[in-house]
């Protein structure tokens, strides 16, 4: 017997307008991402600056709305001043985050030029690890001031007469983490004060700027207390709280893997509660918004765990390991791309990344920026020679195109459920058990100007197809247009340059609408988009 679920989408259940930056991406020069991926002057498609035109064209086709860069952990040790001016005069430096040699061939100005060529909005991360207020001030002045000062005139001297279109500045990266270069783990008050002072300075230089506080990324050791202490010091001078999370599940545990939305929901709701508590404590009308600017999902292997009272790692016994390591720093030559194996189980990864995006849509009133870590590299895939679309590309592309600038509407789902088991892989990869998780996950967006409604549905059922009874009677005058679905019967199958269409969306021609209800059979482990038009 086919299992059934009811999904009700009522136009009065409005959440908020969807900011197009929800569908941005994150870029950090790890391995061959930049040297060999974005940049290779000897690639057949290289342009006048050595950028790969095949990658540029693919990013333009996707219509990437925003890009956060240049890091990442990498940025906390980077001196931007070593990356400007004639390339032959630039300083190569050690990258202690990823144990690389950074040649600074692609520097500040090159990153900005690349975002211009792919037609995306740049969102810039400032180094608050090894650099301070003065360095940040000079970077903002170099980038945003019109001219007549040393740094703004230096930008012009180097061939960039107009200020760069940077609106959003990230004030540090994961600064609470013990792994971070120049970590503020032991001094949240100090980091909050430093963030406040840098944010003031950024906005004094550019009164149109937005700033982002680097929120807690060590979720199990000192969240939420570190975040509360630091954010209180800078609440009234910043505009967003930055969230990062990488969800790992035990190998083969599909239920925990696809329950990523429950984990993210808890993290988001806790952060919103912190912000609203501080708003009340500080007696300010200012509401804080969220930038979820790094996220991903993977299967992980069991590591060494010190079990605590609750059956998972006792994080009070966690500490950074400072054991000697091989003194080897890798230098990445753009002409010799170092292959990184693309993750298997592309369909599952597509569903997990889509689940995160649907979670963002369900919180569109507070989450205004999202940056998929694998947006440029895994969804829009490339190696040293070719570019193609992995399975995750398609739902990412569809939500980006269809949901931006619409109004998010909260769906109500009632159907088959599943449970997950608690696990602890490492100190940073552990999760509670969850009960009665809806196998059908949904989000909806209405664009009244265009007369369109899109309902995004994931069937997380591992074994069962589920018939969805979609109640859309509240959308008077709308009719069913199409049902697009994506699934595969072989979870080990994935797209590659040689087999680019192994997994791709198709139209479901069996779906019908009668009396304001859409009846759609969703395949197990499938992605679905249902469109209504007026």
From TrEMBL:
Known catalytic reactions: Hydrolysis of terminal non-reducing alpha-L-arabinofuranoside residues in alpha-L-arabinosides
Pfam families found in the cross-reference section: Alpha-L-AF_C, ASD1_dom
Keywords: Carbohydrate metabolism, Glycosidase, Hydrolase
GO biological process: L-arabinose metabolic process; polysaccharide catabolic process
Pathway info: Glycan metabolism
Record-linked Gene3D superfamilies: Glycosidases, Golgi alpha-mannosidase II
GO molecular function terms listed in the Swiss-Prot or TrEMBL record: alpha-L-arabinofuranosidase activity
SMART domains in UniProt: Alpha-L-AF_C (SM00813)
InterPro entries xref list: Alpha-L-AF_C, ASD1_cat, GH, Glyco_hydro_b
Annotated transmembrane regions: none
The EC number(s) this enzyme carries: 3.2.1.55
Record SUPFAM superfamilies: (Trans)glycosidases, Glycosyl hydrolase domain
Domain Alpha-L-arabinofuranosidase C-terminal residue range list: 293-526
Family: Belongs to the glycosyl hydrolase 51 family.
Subunit description: Homohexamer; trimer of dimers.
Protein name: non-reducing end alpha-L-arabinofuranosidase
Source species of the chain: Paenibacillus rigui
């Amino acid at each position: 017997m086919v299992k059934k679920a009811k999904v009700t989408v009522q136009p009065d259940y409005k959440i908020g307008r969807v900011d197009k930056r929800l569908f941005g991406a994150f870029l950090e020069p790890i391995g061959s991402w930049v040297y060999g991926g974005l940049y290779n002057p000897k690639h057949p498609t290289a342009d006048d600056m050595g950028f790969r035109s095949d990658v540029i064209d693919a990013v333009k086709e996707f219509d990437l709305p925003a890009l956060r860069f240049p890091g990442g952990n990498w940025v906390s040790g980077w001196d931007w001043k070593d990356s400007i001016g004639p390339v032959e005069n630039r300083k190569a430096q050690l990258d202690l985050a990823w144990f690389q040699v950074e040649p600074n061939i692609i520097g500040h100005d090159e990153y900005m030029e690349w975002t211009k060529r792919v037609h995306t909005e740049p969102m810039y991360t400032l180094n608050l690890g090894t650099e301070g207020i003065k360095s940040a001030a000079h970077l903002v002045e170099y980038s945003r001031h019109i001219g007549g000062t040393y740094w703004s005139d230096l930008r012009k001297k180097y061939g960039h007469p107009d200020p760069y279109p940077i609106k959003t500045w990230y004030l540090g990266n994961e600064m609470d983490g013990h792994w971070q270069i120049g970590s503020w783990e032991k001094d949240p008050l100090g980091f909050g004060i430093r963030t406040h002072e840098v944010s003031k300075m950024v906005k004094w230089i550019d009164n149109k700027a937005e700033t982002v506080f680097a929120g807690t990324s060590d979720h199990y050791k000192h969240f939420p207390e570190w975040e509360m202490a630091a954010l209180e010091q800078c609440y009234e001078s910043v505009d967003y709280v930055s969230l990062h999370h990488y969800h790992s599940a035990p190998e083969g545990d599909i239920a925990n893997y696809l329950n990523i939305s429950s984990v993210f929901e808890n993290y988001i709701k806790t952060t919103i509660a912190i912000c609203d508590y501080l708003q009340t404590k500080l007696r300010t009308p200012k509401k804080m918004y969220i930038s979820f600017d790094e996220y991903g999902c993977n299967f992980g292997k069991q590591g060494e765990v010190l079990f605590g009272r609750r059956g998972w790692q006792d994080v009070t016994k966690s500490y950074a390991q400072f054991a000697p390591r091989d003194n080897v720093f890798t230098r990445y030559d753009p002409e010799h791309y170092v292959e990184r194996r693309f993750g298997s189980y592309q369909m599952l990864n597509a569903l997990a990344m889509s689940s995160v995006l649907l979670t963002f849509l369900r919180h569109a009133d507070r989450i205004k920026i999202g940056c998929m870590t694998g947006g440029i590299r895994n969804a829009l895939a490339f190696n040293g020679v070719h570019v193609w679309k992995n399975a995750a590309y398609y739902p990412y592309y569809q939500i980006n195109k269809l949901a931006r600038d619409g109004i998010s509407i909260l769906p109500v789902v009632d159907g088959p459920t599943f449970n997950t088991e608690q696990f602890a892989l490492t100190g940073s990869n552990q999760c509670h058990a969850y009960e009665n998780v809806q196998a059908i996950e949904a989000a909806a967006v209405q664009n009244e100007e265009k007369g369109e409604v899109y309902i995004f549905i994931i069937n997380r059922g591992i074994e069962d197809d589920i018939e969805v009874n979609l109640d859309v009677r509240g959308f008077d005058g709308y009719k069913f247009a199409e049902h697009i679905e994506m699934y595969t019967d072989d979870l080990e199958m994935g797209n590659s340059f040689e087999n680019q269409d192994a997994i791709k969306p198709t139209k479901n021609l069996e779906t019908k609408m009668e009396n304001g209800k859409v009846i759609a059979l969703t395949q197990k482990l499938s992605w679905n988009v249902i469109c209504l038009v007026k």
